[in-house]
Design goal:
The structure holds two protein chains of two kinds.
Chain A lengths: L5 H19 L18 E3 L7 E3 L8 E6 L4 H16 L4 E6 L3 H11 L5 E5 L3 H5 L7 E5 L5 E6 L4 H14 L3
Parallel strand pairs in A: 3-4, 4-5
Antiparallel strand pairs in A: 1-2, 3-6, 6-7
Chain B lengths: L1 H23 L9 H11 L18 H15 L4 H12 L14 H28 L2 H9 L3
Classes of the chains: A alpha/beta, B mainly alpha.
Chain lengths: 175, 149
């Protein structure tokens, strides 16, 4: 057989390798341009007391987590147990961003299932969500002392992800 | 003759499906200002909906797409231009939101790759043609080589 006869086979194998890698990539997992950038500042009413407007600037100086959730979000139910367990550990304060929800539904959701959050910000029209580049709920942001976003996860949190990725990161940030 | 009928039938079917989908499309809410709405749609055509990734923000009825169209509308009304609006969205959602990726280091391969492949293919073709000219019909040679004797 001529040496050149191997060329198509080689080209085919290269193609297979690329397709194989492509199969393993998750197209829903998008890199956020906000990583290592200052988190957007906002002032929103608290879900607990709608007449009390909270400012995100007040959270400066501590490491904290912002978890975007909604009562209509099915995957939020899935991660709720992991969030409750995480909140019980009291590693860092956990805040919620109640995204495009109805206030009554949000309150009922927290009452029925348990409230893992120190407080939830009520983002009824999803405007703050857009500032955070939210494209699917739930999403989770880890914010450092200087108010920069250090980590983002889109999709439900799992106990493994919290233990293996997020908690070590929190440790590295010195919380 | 029968074939011509079949082809004609196929065209009719295709036309029917086309009309059905055109009619089935959801009506958009009427805008207060059609000129503004046209500009919103023009910008939204270039942006990818992040929830349904193969649709533009102009075409999608996903909640996020509707919200982002609202943002574009508001910013246009406030006097922002197209570049400012696109920068605003890229800062939040990344380059992925652009249907036309910018030419930058991490997209060099994307933009130049097809032309490099085309050039390689042309080079290989030129070589094969030149070899065949020099050796007469190359096909016969291959046949001779592989035929069991």
């Amino acid at each position: 057989m001529k040496k050149q006869a191997w060329l198509p086979l080689l080209a085919f194998l290269v193609l297979i390798a690329f397709l194989g890698v492509g199969l393993r990539l998750d197209p829903r997992e998008l890199p956020s341009p906000l990583i290592d950038r200052p988190a957007p500042s906002f002032a929103l009413p608290s879900v607990e007391a709608m007449d009390r407007v909270r400012n995100s600037g007040d959270l400066r100086g501590q490491v904290w987590i912002l978890n975007v959730w909604a009562s209509w979000c099915v995957a939020c139910r899935q991660e709720h147990g992991a969030l409750m367990a995480f909140a019980a550990q009291q590693a860092v304060p956990l805040y919620g961003l109640n995204y495009k929800d109805r206030h009554g539904d949000a309150v009922r959701w927290l009452r029925e299932r348990g409230d893992p959050y120190v407080d939830s910000f009520f983002d009824g029209d999803g405007r703050v969500g857009i500032d955070f580049g939210v494209y699917g709920v739930p999403e989770t942001f880890l914010i450092d002392r200087e108010g920069r976003i250090r980590y983002k996860h889109a999709g439900p949190l799992t106990p493994e992800l919290l233990r293996d990725t997020i908690l070590p990161l929190i440790g590295a940030l010195g919380a | 003759m029968r074939r011509a009928w079949l082809i004609g039938f196929g065209w009719l079917l295709a036309l029917g499906i086309g009309l059905a989908t055109a009619a089935g499309r959801e009506a958009r809410p009427l805008a207060a200002d059609p000129a503004l709405e046209a500009r919103v749609m023009e910008i939204a055509q270039e942006l990818r909906c992040l929830v349904c990734q193969n649709e533009t923000i102009a075409d999608s009825q996903a909640g996020l797409a509707v919200d982002l169209r609202g943002q574009i509308r508001e910013r246009l009304a406030a006097g922002d231009d197209r570049a400012q609006i696109i920068d605003f969205l890229v800062a939040r959602y990344g380059d992925f939101i652009l249907y036309r990726p910018p030419f930058q280091p991490n997209t060099w391969v994307l933009w130049t790759g097809p032309f490099i492949l085309l050039f390689l293919a042309l080079a290989v073709m030129a070589r094969v043609i030149r070899q065949r000219r020099m050796h007469g019909t190359a096909d016969d040679e291959v046949l001779d080589e592989e035929a069991p004797s």
